[in-house]
Amino acid sequence: MKLIPSLLLLITVSTSVAATExxxxxxxxxxxxxxxxxxxxxxxxxxxxxxxxxxxxxxxGVDDNGDELEILSLLNGPRRDVLRKKNIVSYIEPExxxxxxxxxxxxxxxxxxxxxxxxxxxxTYDFISVGRSRVLGRPAQLIxxxxxxxxxxxxxxxxxxxxGMLLKLALANRAGQLLEQVQFxxxxxxxxxxxxxxxLQQTQLPKVIEIPEGYQAQSLQWQVSWLPAxxxxxxxxxxxxxxxKKPVEFMxxxxxxxxxxxxxxxxxxxxxxxxxxxxxxxxxLNQVVNSFEVSVVGKIPAKTAKVIADSVVLTAxxxx
Amino acid sequence: MSxxxxxxxxxxxxxxxxxxxxxxxxLNDAHLSATWERYHLVGDVMRGETSATINLDIAAQIATxxxxxxxxxxxxxxxxxxRQVNKVKATLLQFTKPFAQVAIAASAAGLMVLGxxxxxxDNETLLPATQVVKTMPLGGVAEPVSLNxxxxxxxxxxxxxxxxxxxxxxxxxxxxxxxxxxxxxxxxSSIQNKAEDPAK
Lengths: 320, 200
What we know:
The complex is a heterodimer of chains A (320) and B (200).
Chain A: H1 3-11, H2 15-38, E1 40-49, E2 52-62, E3 68-74, E4 80-85, E5 88-92, E6 99-102, E7 125-135, E8 138-147, E9 154-160, E10 166-172, E11 178-190, H3 195-202, E12 222-224, E13 232-240, E14 247-254, E15 259-266, E16 272-279, E17 282-289, E18 292-298, H4 302-310, E19 312-314
Antiparallel strand pairs in A: 1-2, 1-11, 2-3, 3-4, 4-5, 5-6, 7-8, 8-9, 9-10, 10-11, 12-19, 13-14, 14-15, 15-18, 16-17, 17-18
Chain B: H1 2-13, H2 20-28, H3 30-47, H4 51-67, H5 78-96, H6 100-119, E1 134-137, H7 155-182, H8 189-195
Signal peptide (chain A): 1-18
Family (chain A): Belongs to the RseB family.
Protein name (chain A): Sigma E regulatory protein, MucB/RseB
């Protein structure tokens, strides 16, 4: 009987059907947020993109004081670890000395909003409960987070019916093509903290880096005049790109689920045609117009990135 | 002769022989004392008595390697940056002791920092997380592209292509870095409230 509404959905994505399904999808997402915050779990997952698989370990737990502990480790290649104790997140990566930031969330393949208030996305995304399937040997509920406009990708979530935990996550374009997948391969939910988390408890994290006040809210001599609805500016600064040492002006936008970076810098070339590459669902787009190089990076369709890049306008005083 | 002496050092280290005259010579000869020290270290390692010392030594090396890395937030004045690096170095040493697994991992990462820098300055950002699959001129025809792909045409075109690939890699890496630093400011207040109120 449950299949009938799902079939209807597949045939016509009418708003009325979506509305009735809404009532079912949101409790699932709220339950997911609860599980991600409160359960002691130890899991492994694989990020599948570009015909490649990146395996991760992910531990989470809550200690006796109610503080969260979290470890996310990339298992292939140079070591990349993210450690979190309550609101201190440390990144241990080959490119940089270990550092910490004050944050309630780790940055990784799983969008942080899934452990937060998903309802804050309701302005720009619909939540649709699609149906049941079997994932990781468990009965799972498929929930789709679908953009209301055509400028964004959809997120598909398979949730454990028993615990509400995430079992699989996929980013899909509007044609339903999967661009990037996170497939869990193992999930243990325990009463006690795992050994790794107990070690983390004893560990002193690297020093929190002090970001000078106002550094992330600098006034730049240009602006982005078009972005899909719901994106707000979360960072604006000048910095050097580590790999090339090139100075850039930078703005970061976020719609709650997706981050989009815009870079502007003077270029030696006068014009360069728009070019882009895809890394899974992440597009990197670059063009030079009138000696100014504009680049856009984020998990958005290339078309959207192109429109964003074209919408960058220099304010008068920065003109060459 | 030297061979012979080294053997004697070995025996002395193993407490088979304790010839005063030889020990005198050993103490005066820099080369022999170093050998003496090494043999003892080997013995200690085999008996598992030195882990702390060795860890700290490696940690110091990583710290030096890390010291040479560029700072994260570029406009911070060099003095502040240096202070930050020093602080991280200090905490890294503390970090080594209680969390042995991570310490070892960090050592491995440290060695890799050196390895990557020495061997592949050309494509240092070529990490699995930042691998790029295909490039397509917008509105143009798809080109079959991998890092091994060689356009048949002129070298300048090839250079432009490589430069473009490098640009893309650098941007992707920077995008990921900036997200990590910006999450400080992102609107997590609702999450914060929820986190403070652990479920059941």
